[in-house]
Structure formats: C-alpha cells, structure tokens
Design a protein that fits this description.
348 residues, mainly beta, Beta-galactosidase, Chain A, domain 5, eight-stranded antiparallel sheet, four-stranded antiparallel sheet, 3 helices, 9% helix
Amino acid sequence: MKKQIQSVLVAMCVVTSVYAQKNVPVSIKVLDDKNRVEVYIGSQLFTAYWFDPSMEKPFLYPVNAPNGTIVTRGFPMEPREKERVDHPHQVGLWFNYGDVSGFDFWNNSYAVPKEEKSHFGRIIHRAIEEADSEGGMAILKVKMDWVAPDNEHAEKLLEESTTYVFSGSEEVWMVDRITTLTAVADRVVFNDNKEGMLAIRVDRAFELPSDEPVVYTDASGKSTEVAVMDNEGVNGWYRNSEGDEGNDAWGKNARWVELTGSRDGAASSLILMDHPQNINFPACWHARGYGLFSVNNLGRNVYNGDLDRFQLVLNKGESITFKHRFVVATGKLKEREVEAIYKDFTAQ
C-alpha cells in the first residue's frame, strides 16, 4: 500500500505545480454501521462512498469543493429548496449503464414500481477490500456485483472491482476511479446507449439557465410545479477540450469536459476526464443543461449519427477496465490548468 501511494504522489507533481501548493493530508473513515466510507481532505469532508443495500447502486455523496461548496444535488438524499426533483436515480457521483444485456441499470430507483423491476438491474456492494491513507492520498478498493433482473429471479451478470484514489491540494480535489468489469454470465452485451457511464448530478447553481417548465422542491421537500424556471443564481457553463461550449458540449467527443459556476458567490470548476486507454477514446459526453454531467465510453451512434453503432460483448471470464478522473476546484480554472491536470492523469 505504501509503495502504491508513493508512486501515485510522485506522478501528481504536475497538478500541485499549477498552484504551487503541497498536497493536503487525506484521511478515510469506514462507518460500517452507517453503510458508508467518509473521505476527508484536511479537516473538510470531500465525499462519502454510500453502500446502503436499500439503494440500487453505490455512489459518492455529497461531493464538496475545497471552498466548502456542495456541488452535488441534494435530492433524493437531502432535498434542498428550489432544486429539481426529476430523475431520482441521478444521485451523487456514480457509475453504471443503461443497456446491459437488455437490462437498464441506469434508470433504476425507488420510483420504479415493483411490477416493472424485471426490466432493471441493480449494483450490489459486496466488500471493502482496502481503505487506507498516507499523507496526501487515500485509496478505497471495493467489490460489487451487477445483477439482473432486480427481483427474486436475479442473476449475476458482472463482477466489478473498483479502486478510488482520493487526493487534493488546498484548491484542487480529485478522485480517480479505476473500474474493472468481469463477465460472470456466459455472454454480457453492452448496447449503444446514451445512459452512462461515470456521472454526477449537480446542484441547481451549476445548471445552465433555461426557460423550460420544471418541478422544484420547497424548503420542506414538497414538490411544486412551475411554468417558467427561476434562473436566479443559475450560471453553469460547459467547456470541453475541443472548444465546444454550453449545450453544444452534449454528445461531442472530447478528452475532458469542464463545468463551471458559482454558488452563493463562490466559484467552482467540476471536470470529468477520459483516459486514452479507455475503449472508444475520446468518449462521448452526456452533458445536459439540467445538471446531469457524464462521460460515456460505450454510447456512440446514439449521440452522433455519423458514428458507427457500437456493441461491446464480454464472454464469461473476460474483463474491461475504465479509468476516469473527477476534479473539483476552487475558482474557474484556465484551460492550461485543466490540461496540466489532464497530463498528470494520463501519465500515470
């Protein structure tokens, strides 16, 4: 463990040089009685890995910025006033997919009626294999099973082995997610689908302004329909590595996408990064103005008719690995700063 942490810290020198800051100590706390693992950078909570068996998948929630801003949406975990209550499956920062051998792992939530669960899959946390930290790095290794359908007839399709690497300086916090999926069923098929893969649902402030009708929550969590959206304090903006901005970032191929915005006067940058070793690099992006922000390595033609329809088949025992990085930083990062962080990520 010590050698692994030291090797990653050496590779991170490019990131810390952006701000001329040293990495802040990272600590990790396993709370089995609460079904979560908390990660702290310095004395501040960065995020927590939730593995409550009542949920349809594990996820990271909340996600906080170094300036103290909560960047994830509260609903459905902790509804906040004037935020959307759509898509209850979009919670925190998570990884799954919308069409695995015909089963929908993406849209599953408490809102799906029991009689319809036969169309959906569930990701079940099985074990924490490692949770350790040293200085400016923490590593969490977990095992999960992808099972379908989500009822008493469930069959295990995939085994997931994921390593989270948490790190941060005073103004830049990061988590790398290295995900290996191994087929347990005889044949597992990932069909071309826009619902995937590593995603975050952000706070209302980081959405792009819109004049569409919406359903909000009030201070008590009660849903309220409004005909015209209130865009006060809503100022999110996408920018990708290829120069596409705003809603034009949706569906495009890019190495990274940055979402910037300010909440309560504090500016933050949220960045997702794709790795050159991932299949179909550079990925397409499911970057929606309403606050869904995801990188999708398996969706192709569904985003862009000029791309070939894609299908990934894993036969029993075969595996595929995905490497992604999520960054949350204080302020609006310049392109050269994002590129420096990306260079570090791809050099590891």
